UniProtKB/TrEMBL annotation:
The lineage of its organism: Bacteria, Bacillati, Actinomycetota, Actinomycetes, Micromonosporales. Catalyzes the transfer of a ribosyl phosphate group from 5-phosphoribose 1-diphosphate to orotate, leading to the formation of orotidine monophosphate (OMP). It comes from Micromonospora palomenae. Residues 82-157 form the Phosphoribosyltransferase domain. This is Orotate phosphoribosyltransferase. GO terms for biological process: 'de novo' UMP biosynthetic process; pyrimidine nucleobase biosynthetic process.
Amino acid sequence: MGHRDDLRKFISDLAVVHGRVVLSSGREADWYVDLRRVTLHHQAAPLVGRVMRELTADWDYEAVGGLTLGADPIAVSMLHAAAETDRPLDAFVVRKAGKAHGLQRRIEGPEVAGRRVLAVEDTSTTGGSVLTAVEALREAGAEVVGVAVIVDRGAGDAVRAAGLPYRAAYTLADLGLVA
């Protein structure tokens, strides 16, 4: 099996949790995709980086990240996957709110101003979290080239309506789930 198939198996086996849950969007669902069980797993995390790099290989960007917490392990996995290539990447973390002490930065890591960046998220239903990150990145002077998620739960229209290209490594149908 290839990287995509291997990662899909990890997602199905480790991340899909059945039972009634309330999503961050406020919507209710009969199942939840807890991708941190995959993005922080010793075998699956390297696959996350490779699959997401392959998904966005034709986009030109120098740094990757998004709103903490969902985006953090994805960005780090992509940073490590890129280190194995001739196209290195920096990673960054977008805080939910500005820091009140120290350097008071909202975006941690290497500077993003003037750079082409990719915004990522583990899974997205409404696009709210990733669009919050996009707004902070634009305010910091970054050029956001697109948004990529591991699993799309329906955010594509909202992200495209915000004027950004959108890609997902997996749809709900790919995972045998229905919205």
